[in-house]
Amino acid sequence: MAERMQFEYNVDGGNFTRAGFASSEIKKILKKLNVDIGIVKRTVVATYEGEVNIVAHAYSGTIYVDIDTERIRINLKDEGPGIPDIDQAMEEGYSTASSQVREMGFGAGMGLPNMKKNADEMHITSEVDKGTEVEIVMFLNNKE
Amino acid sequence: MKVKEIARLLDARIVCGQERADYSIDVAFASDLMSDVLTLKNDNVLLITGLANMQTIRTAEMSDIQCVVFARNKRVTPEMIDLAEDNDLVVLECRYSVFKTCGLLYEAGVEPIF
Ligand SMILES: Nc1ncnc2c1ncn2[C@@H]1O[C@H](COP(=O)(O)OP(=O)(O)OP(=O)(O)O)[C@@H](O)[C@H]1O
Ligand SMILES: [Mg+2]
Predict the structure, then answer these.
(1) CATH architecture, range A4-139
(2) pTM of the prediction?
(3) ipTM confidence score
């Protein structure tokens, strides 16, 4: 296996038919690399929550994946309305999702808290009217 | 309980993964809210839902759920079946309501998560 691998995927805002495509590709890669199945699940669930957030709340985005022997780093960066109050957005149940998003089975305000639960580390930065960046880090060697 | 026994109990049609209907399910969860499904930590979960769209199948994929029951005659599209097939899911279409589906499974000994 190469020491370090990097990939990126584009995500279209509003396109719910394709939402999950990137997370699915990432899952296949992690399984091929024989990453521990528990880590794969946590990584993929967190990434999918982030991918759905780009589709649901932003205009377009890119998911950057960076894997080395120590950790998986996934950066979800979008152009969109941004998040005015990150602490509020992190609260369970807080959601501004549209009715279209709710019809797709999302919009319960559980995505960001669930990302945090699944990730070993999570960092969010956001600028209103510009976009949001969420980074999750998963450690491959030290099990909790 | 084996998936094929579940299909028989629910008088459900296996629309995808017939050849995989031999494996067993421990626990079940019913929800139309994918946000909620994504918070589950269990393995080997049966999902019962009335929400039939691509994201239902995607959510099952990401959560390592191997079997989904669509209740109340919800139609599974060919696109959903393709994606389900890619992920080795078993998909059942059932005419009973979510309530009745859950009742029958509970009575038959399938365990709840919470
Ligand atoms: N990428 C983003 N761009 C802009 N706003 C966002 C973004 N991600 C999250 N938000 C804001 O934070 C809120 C909470 O996000 P969270 O993922 O927790 O819930 P949700 O997406 O509304 O519902 P769920 O994730 O349960 O389907 C969103 O409703 C939205 O207002
Ligand atoms: Mg969300």
Answers:
(1) 2-Layer Sandwich (3.30)
(2) 0.96
(3) 0.94
